[in-house]
Design brief:
about 425 residues; alpha/beta; TIM Barrel; 2 domains; six-stranded parallel beta sheet; 18 helices
């Protein structure tokens, strides 16, 4: 009874306008989220603690309305409840500029932040390690908290370090972030390895053995394909969208989406405005060109000091005649439907990237707004079964298969090979 009351109270908060709450779509979404945990693939709350309060978790009060901060945050308990969130992958992120022990230390700090968040609010959160954990915690009316590590630079080219992070609760690793590593190519760097090196393949295989999700957001297309060739288990994209609708290198091309059907993995569609709207991406590129033109006019691109005032004036004049395109919630739904149409309904999920993005899309401004997205899909004809798969059913299936693959390899020894052994380069 306690669990039912908690769920009912939380789900009653889902859509604030009374008319929306009474709509058939809203009623359907509430019913779906009562039975199926909505699992979000990526939230950068721990990094917010690092950036705002130098890692001091005592300064984070998720019982307050954190939208009132400057700049506002996208996540707090009330909005997680309003959004019907049943499972949250908390991202422990490190900038690509950090490497080795410094990167590892930042990851460890953020793992500690997640543990502290759960310790302080046991009535709301519980750490989850398996699909069964998520479902049990959701039935109890709480939010399953999982840890995803964004950026393999914290591994310091060590499979032993990888195993240590897994032991601390990390359940997925995004192989790299914005820059290439010694063993893997990023989507936003110049190709260096043509995908994964032999050591990179070993990282994927060791993650399979340990029951960790291989996350291919941020990696190059060649890396996506190499990882799909190497893995023995389904993969995820924790926060990516469809390249066919927005030609951003961070998005997933159709050829990879088609391979995902065979692999069994899932793309958790993100809400980053520049990944959703091609018009906004084109506008941003043109704005950058205008900035570069302004800098050249003040003395050339090699100058150490440029006229900030002139740059601002030039950009303001340009923006006055080139207004910023506004992405829409409907465009997010379009990306979700494209992934479904190409990969299949079993291969799409949700990965908001809240608290890791400087701007949001109107109508889906925080973790409170997931139901609005599901309601839009319901209006488009999605069945309750389809909505349940998108919300969390597909991720639960992937996790169970990853866990099964690990169980099948339970007798295999840990891999202690070094990057110099596998790649033939001194590290």
């Amino acid at each position: 009874m306690h669990r039912v009351l908690l769920l009912t109270a939380a789900l009653a908060m889902i859509t604030t306008p009374a008319a929306a709450q009474d709509s058939p779509e809203s009623q359907r979404v509430r019913a779906v989220l009562e039975q199926t945990p909505l699992i979000d693939g990526h939230n950068d709350l721990p990094w917010q603690v690092e950036e705002r309060w130098h890692g001091d978790a005592r300064q984070l009060d998720v019982t307050q309305d954190l939208s009132r901060l400057d700049p506002p945050m996208h996540t707090d308990i009330a909005r997680l409840r309003a959004g019907g969130v049943g499972g949250q992958f908390w991202s422990v992120y490190v900038p690509a500029s950090l490497g080795g022990p410094d990167a590892a230390a930042k990851v460890l700090q953020q793992i500690d932040i997640v543990h502290e968040l759960v310790r302080r609010h046991p009535d709301v959160f519980e750490l989850a390690y398996t699909a069964d954990d998520i479902e049990r915690i959701h039935r109890e009316g709480r939010i399953a908290s999982l840890i995803g590590m964004e950026g393999g630079n914290a591994l310091n080219n060590s499979l032993s370090v990888l195993r240590s992070f897994q032991a601390l609760g990390v359940r997925y690793i995004t192989l790299t972030h914005s820059d290439n590593l010694d063993w893997v190519d990023s989507a936003t760097d110049e190709p260096e390895h043509d995908g994964l090196t032999p050591f990179g393949v070993a990282v994927v295989r060791e993650m399979n053995r340990l029951g960790m999700l291989v996350d291919l957001s941020h990696v190059s297309e060649a890396t996506m394909n190499d990882a799909l060739d190497a893995t023995r288990a389904p993969v995820i994209f924790s926060h990516s969208s469809a390249r066919a609708l927005n030609n951003h290198p961070r998005n997933v091309p159709d050829a990879v989406l088609r391979r995902l059907s065979e692999n069994g993995g899932v793309v958790m569609v993100t809400f980053v405005p520049g990944f959703i709207s091609q018009e906004l991406r084109d506008w941003s590129l043109a704005r950058t060109e205008e900035l570069q033109r302004s800098r050249r006019s003040t003395g050339g691109p090699d100058m150490d000091v440029v006229s900030t005032a002139q740059e601002e004036a030039d950009l303001a004049a340009w923006e006055a005649t080139h207004p910023r395109p506004e992405p829409t919630l409907n465009q997010v739904a379009d990306h979700i439907e494209h992934v479904r149409d190409v990969a299949g309904i079993d291969h799409v999920g949700i990965g908001g990237d809240f608290d890791g993005i400087p701007s949001t899309i109107p109508g889906i401004d925080s973790v409170a707004d997931y139901p609005a997205l599901l309601e839009e899909l319901a209006r488009r004809g999605w069945t309750d079964a389809d909505l349940a798969k998108l919300a969390g059913g597909n991720v639960l299936r992937v996790m169970r298969r990853v866990e099964a693959v690990a169980a099948e390899q339970a007798g295999e020894p840990a891999n202690f090979a070094s990057i110099s052994e596998l790649d033939g380069s001194p590290r």
